[in-house]
Design a protein that fits this description.
single chain, alpha/beta, 7-stranded parallel β-sheet, globular
Length: 658
């Protein structure tokens, strides 16, 4: 097995990853196919062993099961994770789950857990029980003496799963806890001492950074080993974690890919009230410049470039203001940030204004990132633009990217419903292959033909009309939107038609799980941003099943195909029926921003012809735009990773904190 034992004081992997070699290996398709076939064959044999052990273990009393488990723990800690011991441990965990949770792991869940123990990122269809699958891997690792962090995307899921599976862990003699942001330091430290800890990616990364600060900013592994010899009790009591032993990342594509470029920063505040006049003047100067004449916007990169004419004009305006504004470098940097704030960051799409505070919205998840702020004065520019009080700037004390953080785990695996599109990147960045677990049942999802409209107004009208019809038949409907702005607009249109509904976007994200869980109620209409409720089960009543299950409407194509697939996966879960329909327009942001004018004109001709066979062309163009956007995002992540690695080496050389 690829599983590594971790020991010593605060274990973590600080070695350089051979990402180039990994990329080369992943590109050798023949070798990959041979490896895949071997892995699949090994998994099938392992599953058969577990099923074989299950029959005999089911006849044992709990005391006999406990005694047998102690013998297996001793053997594993002495000889490691050999197949015979692990298969028997899996069978015991499976039996205890059946007795204490009323849930018995299916063979495909055993296969997925086996793959995770080997370091794979597993792809398992939505609704196939990924959370239960992870308990097999987590229990086996914890019984071996290797602490486990089960990492997910929000606190609700972390608390839910820790509470839900606690009887199983307790029956096996293991401790389990969840960590949330509102816990005290003492409670967090206690929770992190558990064998299995459920937490969010954000929480675990920030607590790791706090430990780095507590360890006097030392980054070398040799120094960390010496800490165990010389650390005082008062010093070690400041640490949150026991190290980075083993991470099981739920919704792995979201955490490891979509949020990979998000910098995690611990900072101190620095008053900015004296700089308010400077930011105000920068915004005033930005109003004096003309788009496409004095500056050029790049919406995909969120960048602004001053033209030569713009620099000359800015120089002339700066001479009139005097002081700082006579200096070209700070003046241009401030004005560029002001232009970005005005033109590239849009209210209710990129941020919300709540109680006179700017709240950043994660574009992939649609969730508010309450503790984050933009750097280099951009956040303050947006605050002035929206008439909010100026917040303090932040001075960085420690920072790390998700890419670098998760590569520091001694053992790393994960699970998700959508990974195949990014399997090359998962291999090159994290050294992890994707293992697809076959669905256990026949998918009953009905996919309707995609409807393409000339304008957004026509699209929204069609969505409202379709929703009205479905509502009259009491069919539960979930409508996915791209942004807070789009969800609010659709909500207004539904209100005008007097169609009762639930609205879920970044403004209601505290009630996310509760709203999504009710989306399968007979006659329920739910409008949500595309990623809302990821990981939350939508239960259907018998009446809802009788009318065809959940009807999902996708109102826009996301830049990432995986997000669309996640939305589609909200219906037809666990053998339930369900329907998916996409309604898109030629005015949607993806097409307007990415599609050449010639292709866009051809799309308009095809749509206006109203011939079914011609409507396939615009759908293909959308798909191509998604593919191009995904490749651009992947290149951006790789470039930022290289910059991140270079900065890490420079800071390690100088002895500074990364």
């Amino acid at each position: 097995m690829n599983f590594k034992m971790s020991s010593g004081f605060y274990p973590q992997d600080l070695s350089d990853k051979e990402s180039m070699v990994a990329t080369m290996l992943s590109s050798l398709s023949r070798l990959f196919i041979r490896m895949k076939r071997k892995a699949t064959g090994d998994a099938e044999r392992f599953v058969a062993l577990v099923v074989g052990h299950s029959e005999s273990i089911s006849k044992l009393t709990m005391q006999q099961v406990s005694d047998r488990l102690q013998v297996l723990r001793f053997r594993m800690r002495k000889s490691g994770l050999n197949e015979q011991c692990v298969s028997e441990v899996f069978a015991i965990v499976r039996e205890c789950s059946s007795r204490y949770l009323g849930m018995r792991h299916y063979p495909y869940q055993i296969e997925g857990a086996w793959a995770m123990l080997h370091g794979y990122i597993i792809e398992m269809e939505t609704g196939q029980g990924k959370s239960l699958c992870a308990t097999l891997t987590a229990c086996t690792s914890a019984l071996l003496g290797v602490p486990v962090h089960v990492i997910t995307v929000n606190e609700y899921l972390a608390c839910r799963d820790a509470e839900k599976f606690e009887p199983l862990y307790r029956a096996l003699g293991l401790s389990v806890a969840s960590v949330t942001e509102d816990m005290s330091e003492a409670d967090k430290q206690t929770a992190y001492q558990s064998d299995v800890v459920y937490c969010t990616n954000k929480q675990i990364a920030f607590d790791y950074l706090r430990d780095r600060i507590a360890l006097r900013n030392e980054t070398g592994s040799r120094r960390l080993q010496l800490e165990s010899l010389f650390a005082t009790e008062a010093r070690t009591n400041k640490l949150m974690l026991r190290g980075l032993h083993f991470a099981i990342v739920d919704e792995a594509d979201s955490v490891l890919i979509d949020e990979a470029i998000t910098p995690l920063v611990i900072s101190a505040t620095k008053p900015q009230s004296d700089k308010q006049p400077i930011y105000e003047k920068a915004l005033w100067l930005s109003h004096e410049l003309e788009s496409d004449v004095d500056f050029v916007l790049n919406e995909s990169r969120r960048s602004v470039e001053l033209t030569e004419q713009g620099r000359v004009r800015l120089e002339r305006l700066g001479q009139q203001l005097g002081g700082l504004w006579k200096q070209p470098c700070p003046k241009e940097e401030l004005v560029v940030q002001a232009l970005r704030a005005r033109h590239l960051y849009i209210r209710d799409r990129h941020y919300l204004v709540d109680d006179e505070k700017i709240m950043i919205v994660d574009e992939f998840t649609g969730r508010v990132m309450a503790d984050r702020s933009w750097s280099e004065g951009l956040h303050q520019m947006i605050e002035i633009k929206e008439g909010c009080p100026l917040s303090d700037a932040r001075v960085t004390l420690a920072k790390i990217s998700y890419q670098r953080f998760f590569r520091r785990y001694v053992n790393l695996s994960g699970l998700t419903g959508t990974a195949r599109e990014v399997k090359a990147e998962l291999k090159s960045v994290y050294g992890r292959d994707v293992y697809s677990v076959a669905r256990s049942d026949v998918c009953k999802r009905k996919i309707m033909p995609t409807r393409v409209f000339s304008s957004q107004d026509e699209k929204w009208e069609a969505i409202v009309t379709r929703t009205d019809m479905l509502w009259r038949y009491n069919i539960p409907v979930l409508i996915g939107t791209q942004s807070v702005q789009a969800s609010s607009l659709l909500s207004q249109k539904l209100q005008l038609r007097q169609i009762p509904h639930q609205l879920l976007n970044a403004r209601q994200d505290k009630h996310e799980a509760e709203i999504v869980a009710q989306a399968g109620v007979l006659g329920q209409i739910t409008v949500a941003t595309n990623m809302a409720g990821r990981g939350t089960d939508i239960s259907l009543s018998a009446e809802a099943l009788a009318v065809g299950g959940l009807y999902v409407i996708n109102s826009d194509r996301h830049e990432t195909r995986r997000v669309d697939r996640q939305l589609y996966g909200r219906c037809a879960r666990q053998s339930d029926p369900g329907t998916v329909e996409s309604m898109i327009s030629l005015e949607d942001e993806l097409l307007v921003r990415s599609c050449p004018r010639v292709l866009l004109a051809l799309c308009r001709i095809c749509v206006s012809s109203r011939k079914i066979w011609l409507s396939r062309f615009p759908v293909s163009v959308f798909w191509i735009c998604q593919l191009l956007a995904e490749r651009k995002q992947s290149r951006t992540r790789k470039q930022l990773m290289k910059i991140d690695e270079q900065q890490e080496k420079m800071m390690a050389f100088s002895g500074l904190m990364e």
